[in-house]
Write a structure and sequence with these properties.
178 residues, alpha+beta, four-stranded antiparallel beta sheet, two-stranded antiparallel sheet, 3 helices, 6 strands, 26% helix, binds zinc ion
Length: 178
């Protein structure tokens, strides 16, 4: 998914189309990409950076955590947003950002009855036992994703060490012994 920076007009560029499913590069044997990755993006330049917003969609085959049957799942990222510093090259590849967001949108505990079209054979048995744990884990995952900052803003910065702690340690070291 490559963008030529020279081809982005001041008003921004709308790009939509499909990419080979290979870009997903899934390592999980329980998830298989089906068909292409569809994208619909607005790309623009601002303050030395490149940003893209829009939506992504891909169909994958997943394995139900309850009945272990394979089923088709449509991954949708309706609010894709990314921003990167403008690279020195004229051609920018958005594949990695797109890939990451699609992977994040995959359900951590996929269920074959997600769209109500199929009744899961093994659901009832497990639900009484594990439903609470699964629900909590899903909530956790959703919260992480929804508060995530767009790439390149401030989300990826390493946690800063508290300068006062270091200063205190220095004071301890330099303090004259009594
Ligand atoms: Zn199932």
């Amino acid at each position: 998914m490559k963008i030529h920076i020279n081809q982005i007009p001041a008003t921004g560029l709308h790009v939509e189309g499909e990419e080979e499913r290979d870009i997903l590069d899934l390592n999980d044997p329980a998830v298989k990409p089906l068909g292409t990755v569809r994208y619909n993006l607005d790309v623009g330049l601002s303050d030395g950076g490149l940003f893209a917003t829009g939506s992504l969609e891909a169909d994958v085959q997943m394995e139900c955590v309850t009945c272990l049957e394979p089923f088709e799942y449509r991954v949708e990222v309706p609010d894709f947003a990314m921003q990167i510093d403008l690279p020195s090259t004229e051609l920018v590849d958005l594949t990695e950002e797109v890939r990451e967001d699609i992977l994040l949108a995959l359900p951590p505990y996929p269920h074959c009855d997600w769209n109500g079209k199929k009744a899961c054979a093994g659901l009832r048995k497990i639900r009484t036992k594990n439903a609470k744990n699964v629900k909590n884990a899903e909530n956790e995952r959703n919260r992480d994703h929804s508060t995530g900052q767009p790439n390149g803003q401030s989300g990826n910065e390493p946690v800063e060490r508290n300068p006062w702690t270091t200063l205190d340690q220095l004071n301890q070291l330099t303090k004259p012994k009594e």
